[in-house]
User: Which sequence fits this backbone?
């Protein structure tokens, strides 16, 4: 029979079944569960910092290289421009084709030559014309450059001799008892002189520095100055 006006009976579900259905629907809508995110280790942080620091250093190095390149380019342009300007200035200053630039010599000047003794004069003199008893004469040798240029003369004791005589009697020579002569080179300008003084003790000497007990007596004596093979004229003086 057909029931008129009555609805068909509905299927009833238990509460537990409804809860499971909701849970399944919720799980399907959210999707699969994600695993928990792990924090990077300290080593990873260090590597990241090193990479960033290296990139900064690279950028800084590129900037410095760029600045250096620009500076070098500017300086090279300035240097290349200077000679051209100087060349133009020189050309405008001296249009004469026969003009030549002045060359400054940097060579070392030659050494002063040795004096030609033919141009050197040697003069003998004493500080007084006469001496009282017990007063010692000072014998002077004067060497003069009579040439037109400066030259060098050896005025050491190896070349000098102070010679005192009485007539033909050889009284004294500075070389008789000289142990060792020394060289002394002096430059003498044209017309200038070098003077050497020798105090004579009024004693007698002999060649080889032999002992001579006799003393020069009062009277007239002559003094001659010798330099190498150049000898002066005699200077006359009196001993009292």
Assistant:
């Amino acid at each position: 029979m057909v029931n008129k006006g009555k609805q068909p009976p509905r299927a009833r579900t238990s509460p537990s079944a409804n809860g499971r259905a909701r849970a399944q629907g919720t799980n399907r809508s959210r999707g699969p569960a994600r695993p928990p995110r792990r924090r990077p280790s300290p080593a990873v942080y260090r590597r990241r910092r090193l990479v960033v620091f290296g990139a900064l250093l690279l950028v800084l190095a590129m900037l410095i290289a760029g600045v250096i390149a620009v500076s070098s380019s500017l300086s090279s342009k300035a240097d290349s421009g200077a000679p051209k300007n100087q060349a133009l200035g020189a050309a405008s200053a001296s249009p004469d084709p026969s003009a030549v630039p002045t060359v400054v010599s940097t060579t070392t000047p030659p050494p002063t030559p040795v004096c030609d003794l033919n141009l050197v004069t040697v003069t003998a003199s004493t500080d007084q014309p006469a001496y009282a008893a017990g007063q010692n004469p000072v014998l002077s040798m004067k060497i003069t450059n009579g040439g037109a240029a400066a030259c060098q003369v050896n005025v050491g004791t190896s070349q000098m001799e102070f010679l005192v005589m009485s007539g033909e009697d050889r009284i004294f020579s500075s070389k008789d008892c000289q142990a060792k002569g020394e060289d002394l080179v002096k430059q003498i300008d044209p017309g200038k002189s070098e003077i050497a003084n020798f105090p004579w003790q009024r004693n007698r000497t002999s060649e080889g520095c032999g002992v001579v007990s006799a003393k020069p007596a009062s009277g007239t004596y002559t003094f001659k100055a010798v330099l190498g093979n150049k000898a002066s004229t005699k200077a006359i003086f009196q001993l009292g």
